[in-house]
Design a protein that fits this description.
By secondary structure, the protein is mainly alpha-helical. It has a single domain, classed as Arc Repressor Mutant, subunit A. Helices cover 60% and strands 0% of the residues. Helix 1 crosses helix 2. It starts with a helix and ends in a 10-residue tail after the last helix.
């Protein structure tokens, strides 16, 4: 994929995401997305196949951004003192992912991609 195609996809996904946040699923139409992205409607079909493909890309990007944010926050937290920090399970319903955490520097643990435990 060319750099231009990647930029175009990002622009379309960003426009669709903003419409989704502001107006819900009904606001994300081909016409609205193409207008918000400043592109012709056929560009959406060339890049994503159909509206389902676009919504899948929006979901992937949203989840990826969430995971990146959590990773940065976890790295920042790990640099702080772990003395009275988390070692409990949170049952807060407002957080989507609240894993059991132990201070890696104190416990000698590290989380690596592909590790299951």
């Amino acid at each position: 994929m060319t750099e231009q195609a990647t930029k175009t996809q990002r622009r379309i996904v960003r426009a669709a995401s903003e419409l989704l946040v502001r107006g819900g699923r009904k606001a994300v139409t081909t016409r609205a997305v193409s207008a918000a992205a400043g592109l012709q409607a056929p560009t959406i079909y060339r890049q994503f196949g159909d509206m389902r493909g676009l919504l899948d890309a929006v979901a992937r990007e949203t989840l990826s951004a969430y995971v990146r944010e959590k990773a940065v926050r976890a790295q920042t937290d790990d640099r702080r003192s772990c003395t009275h920090r988390r070692s409990t399970v949170s049952t807060t319903k407002t957080s989507h992912f609240r894993p059991v955490t132990v201070c890696p520097s104190k416990a000698g643990l590290s989380l690596r991609p592909g590790r299951t435990s």
